[in-house]
Write a structure and sequence with these properties.
single chain, mainly beta, Neutral Protease, domain 2, 2 domains, 8-stranded mixed beta sheet, 5 helices, globular
């Protein structure tokens, strides 16, 4: 039977949870992570979430247990395996590494689906994006302005995942429910919204092979700006920018006008935009920025640097190639993300302004 009461929340995230990229367990190496379906209700008034995650895996070798990571601040209410509710004796999450004992060995080639109901008050970011978690902010008009940034601590701060660079699911579907009147732009393709008529609206998204820390929630009183980019490779890529409704529209348009120029540079210098079938997306956030896949976080206040462009927009866009398409094998090689992303900036200054910019 399902647990009658949820496990009690921890007051603090464990040291294990706050250390991202720990070596994967034998159980994690024994399965392929096919898909995560995440339904998350975000409640600004209580700074809490209520969520259901459905995780689909396929065994690549026989396995007796499944393992994921989830912050102990977020108590688990129930777990259902292949439609069968589990007792609390069949799973445990003492330190943030959730283990589920299977009723019988899962043979190679066989799939399993795990439904995890959980929720609570997630970690508040002490200093996003460098020290991560949730940012519960307010827009200038007083409406909620919320974002996640979890690169340093990992995806397990708000959803059950394999918190490792090589733990990417094949697909992540997101169903983000927020107070009606707010928008919730996220990763991948927009699949439509549903106004439930009770003060809540769900925004549905689908992203392929997302970097684990690059799954992001962004909620606020946004205005969506849109255009199409015709690539040199023959495809048309949606350009999207979600800005606060209170922003100066002239400044916002000035930033948006930089999108196609930067895309021209990267496609000519590096190669095709990796997620052209989804979007090149940017969202204004109450923190400086982060390379969230197809929904880069932007908080640079529309400032140009001395070379005539917005360095933050350019740097985070670099990570779509160096970080989200090409992901390091482990975080000892994070320089592949940051070093190559940084190297792109003087190249872009020269591309814009000629050798005098160097």
């Amino acid at each position: 039977h399902e647990a009658a009461t949820p496990t009690p929340p921890a007051e603090l995230s464990t040291p294990f949870t706050l250390t991202t990229g720990s070596p994967r367990t034998p159980e994690q190496l024994a399965v392929r992570f096919d898909k995560a379906d995440l339904a998350i209700r975000v409640m600004p008034d209580s700074q809490s979430i209520d969520a259901v995650a459905v995780l689909d895996v396929t065994a690549v070798q026989p396995v007796d247990r499944l393992a994921f990571e989830l912050d102990t601040r977020l108590p688990i209410r129930s777990i259902v395996l292949n439609g069968r509710p589990l007792t609390t004796a069949e799973w445990r999450n003492p330190d943030g590494r959730l283990t589920i004992t299977l009723p019988q060995t899962l043979p190679a080639g066989r799939g399993a689906s795990v439904r995890i109901a959980y929720g609570g008050r997630p970690r508040v970011a002490p200093q996003a994006p460098w020290d991560g978690g949730f940012v519960w902010g307010a827009a200038p008009n007083g409406q909620p302005w919320i974002a996640t940034a979890v690169q340093g601590e990992g995806c397990d701060l708000f959803w059950p995942c394999v918190d490792h660079p090589q733990g990417e699911p094949g697909r992540v579907d997101l169903h983000i429910t927020v107070p009606t009147g707010l928008m919730a732009p996220s990763n991948g393709r927009f699949l439509g919204g549903v106004d439930h008529g009770d003060g809540w609206t769900t925004w549905n998204w689908s992203a392929r092979e997302p970097n684990t820390y690059a799954i992001a929630l962004n909620i606020g009183p946004y205005v969506e700006m849109s255009a199409d980019y015709v690539s040199r490779y023959g495809n048309t890529i949606p350009l999207r920018f979600w800005r606060l409704s209170t922003d100066d529209p002239v400044k916002a348009q000035g930033l948006f006008d930089q999108f196609p120029r930067m895309m021209d540079f990267y496609e000519a210098t590096v190669g095709p935009f990796p997620f052209g079938d989804e979007k090149m997306g940017v969202v204004e956030t109450p923190h400086l920025g982060m390379e969230h896949q197809t929904i880069n976080a932007y908080g640079n206040g529309y400032r140009l640097d001395g070379k005539g462009y917005d360095w933050l927009l350019h740097h985070e866009l670099a990570h779509e190639w160096f970080g989200n398409q090409m992901t390091d094998a482990d975080y000892d090689d994070l320089w592949l993300h940051e070093g190559l992303g940084t190297y792109m900036q003087p190249l872009y200054a020269r591309w814009l302004n000629g050798d005098r910019a160097m």
